[in-house]
Design brief:
With 253 residues, this protein is of the alpha/beta class. Helix content is 35%, strand content 20%. The strands form 3 sheets. Strands 3-4-5 form a 3-stranded parallel beta sheet. A 3-stranded mixed beta sheet has the order 6-7-8.
């Protein structure tokens, strides 16, 4: 897929010279009847390599562009692998509310065997362990390999970000997962989950009502997150888990 073919005009200067893009460029297009805004940001280089003046403000504008994105695309150079700056930007994305896709570009330039893709993906998961929910797509902007999959994937993730799950469905899920793997007890007192609701979207947010929220161990929180993602197909989007106190007597009243 060629973006120029879709929008009918040239919108960005492309060059191998670092720093060519100075500002975020918005491009509007229609994709299967839906209006989409593509934001091409200035490159964000390592802090020590950012020059004062124009480049410094280009980076600030790029960061602001990340903050208004529904779905952000983290572009990794297949020849370089995950750099420290890639990890830094990924950290900013993880703290944002946007969905995330990890794109590995220049895949056509990598010598491959039957294990190359899986090994590369394993390495990315290791380096960006805080983004386990972000899908990874191996592409070549030069040849067009898998480029046509980017927009459909982004739209699917955006739909995931705003989906609402019925409260009854969530509480059936909660009963099942806490029965299959009960929360650990502490000092002889068992952690009890009473209720689960979803108060917000973009990103999906879930509130667990529990007798001792401070006792819900990080490992059990991760278990609940993984089960939510698997049960409701929440790939590509951050989710927020909130644990609130509610006494057993008050709940049953």
């Amino acid at each position: 897929m060629c973006i120029r073919d879709r929008i009918g005009e040239d919108r960005a200067i492309v060059s191998p010279i670092a720093g060519t893009t100075r500002d975020a460029v918005d491009t509007k297009m229609i994709w299967h009847g839906e209006e989409i805004t593509l934001i091409d940001t200035a490159g964000i280089r390592r802090r020590g390599k950012i020059a004062q003046g124009v480049e410094k403000y280009s980076v600030l504008r790029a960061i602001r562009a990340l903050q208004r994105a529904d779905v952000a695309v983290l572009l990794i150079d297949a020849e370089e692998g995950v750099t420290s700056q890639d990890a830094h930007i990924a950290g900013m994305l993880a703290e944002s509310n946007s969905g995330i896709i990890i794109l590995v570009n220049k895949w056509d330039l990598v010598a491959k065997d039957t294990h190359t893709l899986h090994e590369f993906e394993r390495q990315i998961r290791h380096e960006l362990s805080f983004l386990p929910y972000a899908p990874i797509l191996f592409i070549s902007a030069l040849t067009g390999q898998r480029v046509s999959k980017i927009l459909p994937m982004a739209l699917e993730i955006n739909e995931t970000r705003v989906q609402r799950i019925a409260t009854g469905t969530l509480n059936k899920f909660l009963r099942n997962v806490t029965t299959q793997h009960p929360p650990p007890s502490k000092t002889g007192v068992r952690v009890k989950f009473f209720y689960l609701t979803q108060p917000g979207v973009a990103p999906p947010s879930f509130v667990f009502f529990v007798n001792k929220p401070q006792w819900v161990h990080f490992g059990y929180q991760r278990y609940l997150e993984n089960q939510l993602r698997e049960a409701f197909n929440l790939a590509g989007t951050p989710i927020r888990l909130i644990f609130r106190a509610r006494s057993e007597d008050r709940f049953e009243a």
